[in-house]
Amino acid sequence: MTKRTNFFAAAFAGALAVAAPAAAHPHVWVDAKAEVVFDGKGDITAIRNIWRFDDAYSAFASQGLDTNGDGKLSADELKPLADLNVKSLKDYAYFTFITAADGKDIDFNKPTEYWLQQDGDHLILFFTLPTKAPLKSTGKIRLEVYDPTFFVAFRMIDDKNGPIVLDGAPAACAIKTFRPPDMDPAAAAALAAIPADQRNLPPELQLLADDQTNGADITCP
Question: What are phi and psi of 125, to 5 degrees?
């Protein structure tokens, strides 16, 4: 995927300039978790994503949504924003990528369920992406969750079950998660120096962004 993502900018004009005035890349930070869903035959059929947005973006994106003025954002009040987010994400493959054991990229259908939820100063997006066809899990499958152009910085987070869990997987399946390496301060400074209105990264900085991937290798016999 080589498109420059303008998902957040398109959804909320000026949001990124307000949320991150000091840095051009990345603009938005997301703490992420994922669940890999298997069917009764041991095939992968969906990915459930859970994304927690940074507080600055969450504050800007939620302006004006508290329609009843109670100081809280209900699922109903957040639904128009959730609709817009999911619709826009389609153009960028939902920042979710699966590579089959034979190296083939796997396509998704549109989300079957999704919603936004408020968690203190943060918004959390939940959405389930079904694969277009069941994916045989035999061999090594790679799941990645990231923005290839680093406009959005994803970071997989841990809880008691780990950042990526297998739901209904055959007992012999194993999972090994990975996260992006810490970026060199000079590289981070070079990215931050890019003007906010510049959508494409220079080739040398694109190489740095290519390392900023999260995910897991899933191996089933």
Answer: -105, 125
